[in-house]
Design goal:
The chain is α+β, with helices and mostly antiparallel strands. It has eleven helices and ten strands. The chain folds into three domains: 32 residues, no CATH class; 192 residues, CheC-like (Chemotaxis protein chec), CATH 3.40.1550; 74 residues, SpoA-like (Surface presentation of antigens (SPOA)). InterPro entries: CheC-like_sf, Flag_FliM, FliN-like_C, SpoA-like_sf.
Length: 334
């Protein structure tokens, strides 16, 4: 075995089984490895993602972990800490073997991308969340085999809302719209893809109060295949200026036109002492420093923009705009 070579899980299992059965000794294994210079390639573990793309997926899910931390902290009102532990590409069947036989699995569609994405949550973590939602202290337990219909509905709703943030984490790469489609507790019943197809598994260290466990995001290669070029460092480093379509520019203009701004017609100002202020009573008159014959200053968002005069329109108080105040808006910023 050459330096830096990493054995697969199946190779490790085979070696341990052979050593335990006495079929070979450690010395024989060492001699065999020294004499062998041909590296075995396992086609069942085809590497479809480059190291660069795995790093990009890690960055995306680090952002996702931060968003989940904020979301669950607000929903559960307890200490929550979520961080990326690892990101690996493995066959789908190996992912299924690596998680508990009975666990919490949420299945999502991510249009416009095809296929499904899994969010697997350790039962200890899932029940701590459920306990907090129901008003408890966040005690983790494992009775996933006996989930009631109410517990299933509460959990699926919670993770459905949480996975919406997956869209925000991916917005710099692709626009996706996660859609909850299924809730399962036995991974053996899931037949998303072929057992030997490659998936990326991003493992998230999760702490909810005193409960600790893992959440795993499983993304099949077929889901990411259409956007694989965007996961390269070249795409991230490109300073591409996104051009807005005429329709998008029109929608932005409509939203700006519909935005509300405060308008203030200032009648005048006055300065009084603190003592005078403390002695004010109902009926007292404060004399302004501005004559009734002088125009008013009309402010838009606290910035002087117009000169106007007071009056009435349809028996209601009104201000008539006489002129615009010329000058740089920055001059009025405090």
């Amino acid at each position: 075995m050459t330096a830096g070579e990493v054995l697969s899980q199946s190779e490790i299992d085979a070696l341990l089984a052979a050593l335990s059965a006495g079929e070979m000794s450690a010395e024989e294994l060492k001699k065999e490895e020294e004499g062998r210079r041909v590296k075995t390639y396992d086609f069942r573990r085809a590497l479809r993602f480059s190291k660069d793309q795995i790093r990009s997926l890690t960055r995306i899910h680090e952002n996702f972990a931060r968003l989940l931390t904020t979301f669950f902290s607000a929903q559960l009102r307890t200490y929550v800490q979520i961080s990326v532990a690892s990101a690996d590409q493995i066959p789908y069947e190996e992912f299924v073997r690596s998680i508990p036989k009975m666990t919490i699995i949420n299945v999502f569609e991510v249009p416009p991308l095809g296929g499904h994405v899994l969010l697997e949550v350790n039962p200890n973590i899932a029940y701590a969340m459920l306990d907090r939602v129901m008003g408890g202290r966040g005690v983790g337990m494992d009775k996933v085999e006996h989930l009631t219909e109410i517990e299933t509905r509460i959990m699926s709703n919670l993770f459905d809302k949480a996975f919406v943030h997956w869209r925000d984490a991916w917005e710099s790469v692709a626009e996706v719209d996660p859609l909850f489609v299924d809730f399962e507790v036995n991974p053996q019943f899931l037949r998303m893809i072929a057992p030997n197809d490659t998936v990326v598994v991003i493992s998230l260290n999760t702490q909810i109060g005193e409960a600790r466990g893992m959440m795993n995001v499983c993304i099949p290669h077929v889901v990411l295949e259409p956007i694989m070029p965007r996961l390269s460092v070249h795409y991230w480093m490109q300073a591409q200026k996104k051009e807005r379509s005429p329709e998008e520019a029109k929608r932005i203009e409509q939203r700006i036109r519909a935005a509300k701004l405060p308008i203030i017609a200032e009648l005048g100002t006055a300065v009084i002492t603190v003592n005078e202020f403390l002695q004010l009573e109902a009926g007292d008159v404060i004399q302004l420093e501005q004559s009734i014959h002088e125009p008013l200053v009309v402010k838009i968002g606290h910035i002087p923009k117009f000169i106007g005069q007071p009056g009435k329109r349809n028996k209601k108080l009104a201000v008539q705009i006489l002129a615009m105040i010329e000058g740089d808006e920055d001059d009025h910023d405090e």
